[in-house]
Design a protein that fits this description.
The complex is a heterodimer of chains A (224) and B (475).
Chain A: E1 2-6, H1 10-22, E2 26-30, H2 33-42, E3 47-50, H3 59-68, E4 74-79, H4 84-92, E5 97-100, H5 105-116, E6 127-130, E7 133-136, E8 141-144, E9 147-149, H6 153-164, E10 170-171, H7 172-180, H8 190-202, E11 211-214, E12 218-221
Parallel strand pairs in A: 1-2, 1-3, 3-4, 4-5
Antiparallel strand pairs in A: 6-7, 7-8, 8-9, 10-12, 11-12
Helix pairs in contact in A: 2-3, 6-7
Chain B: H1 3-6, H2 10-63, H3 65-73, E1 84-90, E2 95-98, H4 105-111, E3 118-121, E4 128-137, E5 140-147, H5 149-199, H6 215-264, H7 270-300, E6 309-311, H8 313-330, E7 334-338, E8 347-349, H9 351-368, E9 374-381, E10 385-392, H10 424-434, E11 438-443, E12 448-455
Parallel strand pairs in B: 7-9
Antiparallel strand pairs in B: 1-2, 1-5, 3-4, 4-5, 6-8, 9-10, 10-12, 11-12
Classes of the chains: A alpha/beta (224), B alpha+beta (475).
């Protein structure tokens, strides 16, 4: 993905851009809001990672300007302003996701990857696969090695979220957001419980497991 | 404002009562005066006709009946439009003179036989009485009479003038009263609307109306002063949030990044790596506490109300249960659910915040109760409101500690081995208060019972005190 990062803190900018480059993304960094807008409009970026408190033009105004310019760019706010009203403001001006500082790089990367995969979601006749697991999105039919698997509606949604991010990490918080519409960090292992139920149906009766735990952050589905 | 608004409340009843009292009192005074004038009219008429009779008899005695008839016919005695009439008959009873066109002479002479020489004539508004008196003459008989019609008419016109005057006075007073009451009501409505808007998040709204300066104006001024101060406090809170973000979270971010780079690098010492991991967790915990504290402040400011929508609590509770049921079963706890089959009224609110509040109490029950505990989640609605109950038969909270858990950073688990920052309940209370709901914690005997109460009428106050019940506060 081609990413523009607008961040005035050099250390954070270097930390994030290095990490993203290592993950295979092309990253440009600017530290001023006005420069960010100019570059964002001139160049064709897939994603803009935007701080809110930046010199020149604040992050909210940058997002608003980019949106009104008609550029079809995804915006992820990466900011220290993490209050409920701050998040709402960020999403109101057209932000697609909101990550609050301090953050774990693995979380940021997972969210960046998930945003990059959003565009082709709309095809309804789509079939999602991982190894010999197949999911017919329109008919909600799941099979593994031609053997049908009966899933409850939420289990099916959970599997869909994993499959749509095949090979990438899906964070626990992302699962809660996408499957249940919750936006908070649970104190309990509630997500693990649902994953283990899904595993019991999708992985347990078969030889090779497809759903893998990514230490400390989330889950990923891939054919090992 | 509708007319109905003005006729509501005690003020209108007092004004209407006062007007009725004034009308009743003046009518009573008028009635007494009228009764008095009735007697005085009677006396006046009798005196006049008796005096006239005596002087005519004296005239007859001196000059005889013929000159008397001529005198009366000459018009010197009676005036035009006078109600007095004279009738003279000769010794044989043949009429010589009768001056009234209105009262026939036979009727006049007949009246002498009535008690007190008085007869009533006409009906309705035309009703009046005729008074007669008679005396023998030298060669005949004299009758003097008078009707009280003119005097009654005079009294009637007086009564009409009185009624018109009274009506005009009452109407003027009512109009004035209505004008002042409308203005007072408009001012109260303006104040109420401003306070409601302020509470809903429009913190720059103020009460404003022009002169005259009255007690409502003074009250509005006091309200505006309070709102100014509250707005400054809310702004300070937002600045604090921004200050914390700038001055504390940015360095924390850098610190975390450096530790993360070290953690992901080649570290020969496993113990050292573990310590770095712990330091990162500490930073995350610190950041979570900052976030929770700032969030409580932002929730308390009420700004978020402007984003409220209708939320179906039944579907919300069902969804939370669906999320947590497997977890409760896997923790070897039992779940009991009670949700009404009929639709539940919606409440104005933020779905995600309400969900966070419910999850907080359900997760507390799961985390703090041993296997075998029964957790009951119930939703009930009545005309008074909607109640969500999360109760368990676990270890519970000692009654003396219940008030403490509403305090920030207070933790029952002194060893702090269970996850949490001591901000869960204060944050839930802030969410409840934002929704004008109330959280009550009580002894479930055994265990803890959490009740989240959404009153149907959030404006309902405690009797007498005029206060709204609030979570964790004893009034």
């Amino acid at each position: 993905m081609r990413i523009l990062m607008i961040e005035d803190d050099c250390e954070t900018a270097a930390f994030v851009s290095n990490g993203l480059r290592q993950a295979g993304h092309a990253v440009d960094v600017v530290s001023d809001g006005k420069d960010g807008v100019l570059l964002g409009i001139q160049e064709d970026y897939d994603l803009v990672i935007l701080d809110r408190m930046i010199p020149g033009l604040d992050g909210l105004s940058v997002a608003r300007t980019l949106r009104s310019s008609g550029r079809n760019v995804t915006i992820l706010f990466l900011t220290a302003l993490g209050g409920i009203n701050d998040r709402v403001q960020g999403l109101d001006v057209g932000g697609d996701d909101y990550v609050v500082k301090p953050f774990a790089f693995s979380e940021l990367l997972a969210r960046v990857n998930a945003l990059g995969r959003r565009a082709p979601f709309k095809c309804e006749r789509e079939k999602l696969t991982a190894g010999d697991l197949e999911m017919d999105i329109a008919n909600r039919v799941v099979t593994r090695g031609n053997q049908p698997i009966n899933l409850l509606p939420r289990e099916s949604m959970l599997l869909e979220v994993l499959l749509r991010n095949k090979g990438r990490v899906v964070l626990r918080t992302m699962i809660l957001e996408r499957v249940w519409g919750f936006r908070f960090e649970p104190k309990t292992s509630v997500v693990e419980t649902h994953i283990s139920r899904l595993r019991a149906k999708v992985d347990k009766p078969f030889k090779a497991p497809l759903i893998h735990t990514v230490r400390g952050s989330g889950y990923s589905i891939y054919d090992s | 404002m509708t007319a109905n608004d003005c006729t509501r409340g005690p003020q209108f009843k007092y004004s209407a009562g006062l007007a009725l009292l004034v009308v009743a009192a003046s009518s009573l005074v008028f009635y007494c005066t009228a009764l008095d004038s009735q007697a005085s009219i009677e006396h006046q008429i009798l005196t006049r006709i008796n005096q006239l009779r005596d002087s005519l008899v004296a005239y007859d005695t001196r000059l005889g009946i013929r000159p008397l008839v001529e005198l009366v016919q000459g018009g010197a005695i009676l005036q035009a439009r006078d109600d007095v009439f004279i009738s003279i008959a000769d010794a044989r009873g043949q009429p010589l003179l009768h001056t009234s066109n209105d009262i026939p002479k036979s009727e006049a002479w007949e009246a002498l036989k009535a008690p007190k020489g008085t007869v009533s004539r006409g009906s309705g508004l035309e009703a009046h009485r005729v008074f007669v008196t008679s005396a023998p003459l030298s060669e005949g008989k004299l009758l003097v009479g008078q009707s009280d019609r003119q005097l009654l008419e005079a009294r009637q016109s007086l009564f009409i003038r009185f009624a018109l005057l009274n009506g005009a006075a009452v109407a003027t007073l009512s109009l004035l009263d209505l004008f002042f009451r409308r203005r007072a009501h408009a001012r109260l409505v303006a104040m109420k609307a401003t306070l409601a808007a302020f509470n809903a998040g429009a913190t720059d709204r103020r009460v404003s109306f022009s002169e005259p300066i009255d007690c409502y104006y003074e009250l509005a001024y006091a309200i505006n002063e309070t709102l100014d101060r509250t707005q400054v406090l809310i702004q300070n809170l937002n600045y604090t949030s921004s200050d914390v973000a700038h001055n504390l979270k940015k360095p924390l971010t850098r610190l975390r990044q450096r530790l993360e780079v070290m953690y992901d690098g080649d570290l020969p010492d496993a113990d050292f790596k573990c310590k770095i991991g712990e330091a990162i967790e500490e930073i995350d915990s610190l950041a979570t506490k900052f976030e929770a504290l700032l969030n409580i402040g932002q929730l308390q400011s009420g700004d978020h109300r402007s984003r409220f929508v209708d939320v179906d609590l039944k579907s919300l509770v069902t969804q939370v249960i669906e999320l947590y049921e497997p977890m409760i079963i896997d923790s070897w706890q039992k779940l009991e659910v009670s949700i009404p089959t009929e639709p539940v009224r919606t409440v104005r609110g933020d779905r995600e915040l309400l969900m966070e509040m419910l999850v907080n109490f359900i997760e507390n029950a799961i985390l703090h109760c041993p296997p075998g505990t029964k957790i009951r989640i119930a939703l009930a609605q009545s005309t008074a409101g909607i109640t969500i109950t999360i109760a368990d038969d676990g270890p519970g909270i000692p009654p003396s500690e219940i008030e403490n858990v509403f305090r920030r950073f207070y933790r029952l688990d002194a060893s702090r081995t269970k996850p949490g920052h001591g901000l869960g309940v204060p944050c839930s209370v802030a969410i409840a208060e934002l929704h004008r709901a109330r959280i009550e914690l009580s002894d479930n005997k055994p265990g803890l019972k959490v009740e989240i109460y959404f009153p149907a009428n959030s404006r309902k106050k405690l009797p007498k005190l005029g206060l709204r019940p609030r979570s964790g506060l004893r009034v």
